[in-house]
Amino acid sequence: MLVVDDYESVRQLMAFLFARPGWRVCVVGSGRVALELSVRERVDAALIDVHMPGLDGFQTCAALQGQMEETGRFFPVWLMTAAVSEAAKRKAVEAGAEALLDKLDVPMDFAEILERYFATQ
CA dihedral in degrees (76, 28, 10, 74; nearest 10)? Predict the structure, then answer.
């Protein structure tokens, strides 16, 4: 699982919260690094912060979708933000995200979302 957030404290928290037997969690601090990593490493799912310097989460998600189309290696991408709005939800779906999650709920809900998602695949 790939977690992208520009705050070190959030990356550390997400790495801790999503540590599960059999899961490898990779945390990076920028959209550019996420794009580079997704070419080199197998990614099964991604959770990306919306508000980051450089490539924001929407741009990173859209670029990942482009990479997936080129390589034929697809994985789900969820975006997260503390400022959820209907406009942001629409923009997330347009970028190719599964959904836009409320960052304040992510630690409690996202592991369950992943487990349910992969159980249906």
Answer: 0
